[in-house]
Amino acid sequence: MTEERALARTLASIIGNDHVSEQPELSIDGLNPGLVARPASAEEVLACMRVCSESDAAVVPAGQMTWLECGNPLRRIDVVLSLDRMERIIEYSPPDLTATVEAGVTLSAFNSLAVLQRQWLPLDPPGFGRASLGAVAACNSSGAFRLGFGAPRDYIIGLRLVHADGTESKSGGKVVKNVAGYDMNKLYAGSYGTLAIITELTFKLRPLPDHSSTILITSQNREALFDLAKRVLVSELQPASVVLTRRLSDSPESSWPDDGLLIRVTDSEASVEHQVNWVLQSLDENYKGIVLREEQADDAWRHIAHFDSQAIRVRLSVPLSAVQSEFEKACRAHPDCAATVDIGTGIIRISFDAEGGSAVDQIKRIRASAAGATGTLTIEKAPVEVRRSADAWGTVGSTVEIMRAIKTRFDRQSLLNPGKFGWD
Predict the structure, then answer these.
(1) Residues 6+ positions from 378 with CB-CB distance below 8 Å
(2) How far apart (Å, rounded) are the C-alpha atoms in residues 76 and 63?
């Protein structure tokens, strides 16, 4: 307790008494961090991290305090370093389609500004209404726009980073150009705050499309919806999203169908009209299709990004050839599950209820099936013991050795999110 108070006083001397607090009610992975510190600049983050490093204090980087329990359970937490006060847009150059922002700027706030210049950052990750850009990048979190526009790491051209040893570095720059050698931005994007704290980000932007339209298609036969989606994906069309949903709402007041196929197109008004007509004219008596009003479409995509009604949520990434079969296997194993499948990218998200050993067994079976199709499974949400027993990640991927090398170089004490990947 004495050490914690000394650490609190030192942090307060850097960022002010009002921005260091004890929060005993805050729990992450069943652990209660002693302190929450809220620096207001990259320089303050650097100074705070130096103090924590000298004190051997384990640090959890945070934005809006969401997604902190994604991944394997942490081994220990002493300080939560929240960057939610870092909300400055440092530089925005509309002619260059680039912007540099602090990590606490939210995606929604930035796009509200960029839209005035007919530009945007085309991302819609889970929880995008509140998500900070630092967290979106750290988790490389993507949503239904991924088919047409890609993932966060596709837009990051520069990062400013604070390391666990109290040093600072930069990756990339502020100019859109081809990268010679390994693109370190892509490594830090998706490292979940284990390698460094992202304090500033430079993004390339996209022109805002003139028009957007979403078609909702239903059928008594889910296979028919998959067939239609495949026809759209191999056609001349260029959809931004092709997502099949299952039981997204358990509310008796909801009019949402048990199975629905959502096709979104974004382009010039003429192009959107052509693509919508192509889809509607492709429907026969096996389908019903309607073009959603703007507010209906917004609500539908928001629902897809936020569905979170059950105890377990997992994300599968499988080859396109295996999307339908893996989705159907999961639905047969969990008849009451809610699910979405991004048919053009191979990403399946499933939410279901299960407890303890049963949950672990079910996750392992789904993961084994996905692995048989050369796919992977990540646990996005589950109780601590389930994530610990099942392993939230499974196969980490080919970058693990590079990540280990960076962790060894800058974080020998394993102070940043210790245990998030299991090997760290």
Answers:
(1) 314, 315, 317, 392, 393, 394
(2) 19
Which residue's entry shows tokens 């942490």? 74
Q: How far apart are CA 88 and CA 170, in angstroms?
A: 18
Report whether 153 contacts 186 (CB < 8 A). yes
- What DSSP character marks residue 208? P
What is the predicted pLDDT for the residue at 177?
59
Residue 91 DSSP SS3: strand
Q: In terms of pTM, does the model score above 0.85?
A: yes
Tokens of 404: 């280990």
Q: Give the strand order in the sheet containing 98-102.
A: 89-93, 98-102, 197-204, 156-162, 168-172
Residue 128: closest CA among 102, 109, 148, 156? 109
| Per-residue pLDDT tens digits for 109-164 | 999 999 999 999 999 998 887 899 999 999 999 999 999 999 999 999 999 999 99
CA distance 75 to 66: 19
DSSP SS3 for 84: coil
Q: What token pair was written down for 25?
A: 């009610």
CB–CB of 313/350 below 8 Å?
yes
Burial pattern 139-156, b for ≥16 Cβ within 10 A else e, equals bbbbbbbbbbbebbbbbb
φ and ψ at residue 28, rounded to 5 degrees:
-130, 120
**Nearest-angstrom CA–CA distance, 410 and 401:** 14
Domain architecture of the chain: domains with CATH: 2-82 (3.30.43.10), 91-207 (3.30.465.10), 211-390 (3.40.462.10)
Chain segment 275-311, per-residue pLDDT in tens: 999 999 999 999 999 999 999 999 999 889 887 768 8
